[in-house]
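Q: What structure does this chain adopt?
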Amino acid sequence: MNKVTAFFALALLAGCAQQTTTSREATANPEVTKPETAIPDQTAKETDIKEPAPAVVIAPVPQPKPVVKPEAKPKPKPQPTPVQKPAVTKTGDGKLILGSEEWVWLTQPKQHIRAKVDSQAQLSTLGVSNIQAFERDGNDWVKFSSGGKSVELPVERWLKSKENDSKQAVVKLRAKLGDLNELTEFALTAGQGIVLGVNFIRDVAVVDGKRKFVQPKVK
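A:
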């Protein structure tokens, strides 16, 4: 009995001593606990990854087209103005050339009258209106209207009509045509216009029937 008790006492003392030693070692060398390394959460990373933004397509800026300047064409050289030959109004021997129509200036009634040139008519005629014969100082005179104007002239002679007993007065009027300035006999007829006959153009003019108004207007 005493041996058993002594054995248990020894065992108990040994256990206490071992516990004390172990406690001291633990105190002297405390165990360092390493922090656990956090394992990254792959799921979280996958969630946090944002989808890439759509690419912005920048439209190309249209470039202005280069201005193509037209080729400078050489300026045409000015052509010399053709020199117009003056119209021939006289023949080589100095006679006037008259067209089939000309402008004649009459001192009475002081106006230009369009005249027909007729180389077949022997006597020139003047178309008038309101013809009235009267006497002045014992001489025959005639009053008539021409171009809206009243004219009185002495009668140079009378022409008898072949068809009846009527008479036609012949008067003298100064007519200007080109270089001509002639006191010419005109037979007065009812109507308008002038016919220049042989008595006006004889020896001083020739007629070119293909031309008109060859001579300039004069007064």
